[in-house]
């Protein structure tokens, strides 16, 4: 059924409203997880179900840090390695570092370059109760900086563990790394936007940001569409939830295309 009275001038939004997906524009999701999570039920968390959702919603590629890697020091990063091996064209991975366990870090770093699909690191300081600028992370920062890798960090405004000010400090010290502000530091998003505008190696990431009315438009106006990345926390949320926030944010179609796809392509060198 076509919608006849939609006032949004975006042709991509019109396409989505008419067909339920964007056939003309694939998507890359820069912030996803995978697998079961303690204390809750995620019905679409298995790898196979996620691939089905990706096919249905025209998601070309996801970058993922499975829950097992975030919270299971025994399982470590095995799940993402298996997923990347099974779907090398659909799944890329963040190597997750829990600063309270070594995760066989030195062994894994020695193998890092030979494991197809790793694009950088994921850290979760608020949950691990360890500061982003702590000494236990230094080894991976030096490793990532040498190789020009990505770092996706959970960020939250006024946090003692991962405020955007810590990203500012690190982005100046490690200029060859690319820093993705996971969630774009809610509560201090204005600071995060200013940082992304000022620092070439810092990007805003949209996961959980769509609920903040007017925020996507503000990011685009002040930092530029080229500094905003599409991320969703999938499988916690259906990616279409965040896509709707982008499509109906009032920005232009070229800006939407940069956010949902081309910025990621550029960062990944694909």
UniProtKB/TrEMBL annotation:
Segments forming domain Amidohydrolase-related: 67-270
Q: Does the keyword Lyase apply?
A: yes
Q: Which UniProt keywords apply?
A: Lyase
Record has Transmembrane helix as a keyword: no
The protein's matches in Pfam families, at most eight in alphabetical order, are given as: Amidohydro_2
**Source domain of life:** Bacteria
Q: Which PANTHER family match?
A: 2-AMINO-3-CARBOXYLMUCONATE-6-SEMIALDEHYDE DECARBOXYLASE, CATALYTIC_ HYDROLASE
User: What's the name of the protein?
Assistant: Amidohydrolase family protein
Native species: Cohnella hashimotonis
